[in-house]
């Protein structure tokens, strides 16, 4: 019987789990479920049977604030010798560490007699690479050994890459039966008695492992502290709307669920299940959206991407000196080169986004020593942009796949059919995307601000001059009066792709658009053919390749909408930004646990129906979860200014506004380097007011209406 609830997701570092409402994995019902470690599925089946039957589900809750799944279950009829149905309650708690999955099973009998309960744990591990689970075929695989050892069950896979991958199942209680796919024991339960059984699935077993109960308790304490530390380190954002607060809490928790520790802080991995690894573009955009509430994410992302910046030219990985990473994968297929993604650089936008985030982070945090330490990497990134532009006939930043199995399209819309002409023909040759030119503009301005702060004004002024010239050339080449918007791209023959797309909205985000063009783009994006009631579609329904069920040609992506909303607010179109925020809030309210997925289908919104799900969307997805925070920055009109040579920081609030249903919004503990401020936005009859509820001595506030 299919599980009526959506799958539950847990993650810790390089381990993530996709579990059903029982806290189990049943591959017959959900093929992508499992527990994955370092890019490989280490558990493909996990089932508990009581008297040979699966328990009934009473309820399941993912405690997102602490990264724990709790399932309440009960027994089926145990037969003549067993307990009557619904007399045994099982509370099952699941938590992850970086190298293990642990469960506590609490059994309580509500029967009137002692029962001897046979319990069987079924286990399998197919050790499939994440790309195999996704559908990639392999000509050859390694070999798996299954064996019982000292009351535990071991599964060992000898990979073709020479690495042994291990899963060990052990329990806290003695077992009576160990097979190659199960462990069995009998538990005696007295009436009203609770007995606990602890289960460990270990992927890096120690020579002398922790006891199962101690291991579980330590893991539970560590994961609770992990999420508490996240909340302590970030600004608190609370409204007077309980549903909105639930969306905020879920979104914040999901970003931290996906975050892994790196040398300079945290890196939000892109999404579960398909993208649980560092992605350059995703990490940079997620960190930028979260910058208002948690600047330390930006520090972690910048540090990691600087350390993994391309140092050689390697066509097999679309790698060029100075380029910023697209993705980095673990797993057997990546190690063997069966996919080129062990370290892959096929993204044209990660490098300018890296520079943009560095500039914004410095302004927000005043972390000059850290940014000064990144100067060689920032200079190399700028040099790559200059070299790439110089190599194109029109001077625009372009991409062209070189790696045999790399990505055909290398912007954020990277599916094969996403970049096309109005008649549906795919764009060929080297491609200049409209939003990438906007990012190149933003990168110059951001790096100029860094150089000004670090005492290199002449170079900074040179970059600002370049940005101004690029802005002029961009508008002349990309503006398309026939669609009243920017062309999606210019192909290798110099022909514009005159297609109405959401990409044009990103041009507002960086400020490359003229005021008049921004107004036209706003009208086009918010027209009923583009805005479907939940958000802006990736492609306007008038376009030939429009398909609301496609990945990039008519779907709705929350992060895309957040960047559009931030751009609209930059040009003063706050009512449109509010419309986007409201649509996403209502979408979040209509999906389980307020968890916005990577994308949803672009069908027009209908009364009494929620958004239509895209079947293989990642959920959670970092930049979807972070979207609400980017949009809050937009509607509060918040900008941070630091004058060169001054230790003071100015918080500017341009025409702040609130969406329907919110009358109060408190932002407390907003950190600006060594300074801090507490703000309250409140609705009055005709306006939104701002109260500064506390600030440190070096903060000035300027409210502009």
From TrEMBL:
GO terms for biological process: carbohydrate metabolic process. InterPro entries: 6-hairpin_glycosidase_sf (IPR008928), 6hp_glycosidase-like_sf (IPR012341), GDE_N_bis (IPR032856), MGH1-like_GH (IPR054491). Residues 354-587 form the Mannosylglycerate hydrolase MGH1-like glycoside hydrolase domain. Residues 10-199 form the Putative glycogen debranching enzyme N-terminal domain. Pfam families: GDE_N_bis, MGH1-like_GH. Gene3D superfamilies: 1.50.10.10. This is Glycogen debranching enzyme. It comes from Cyanobium gracile (strain ATCC 27147 / PCC 6307).
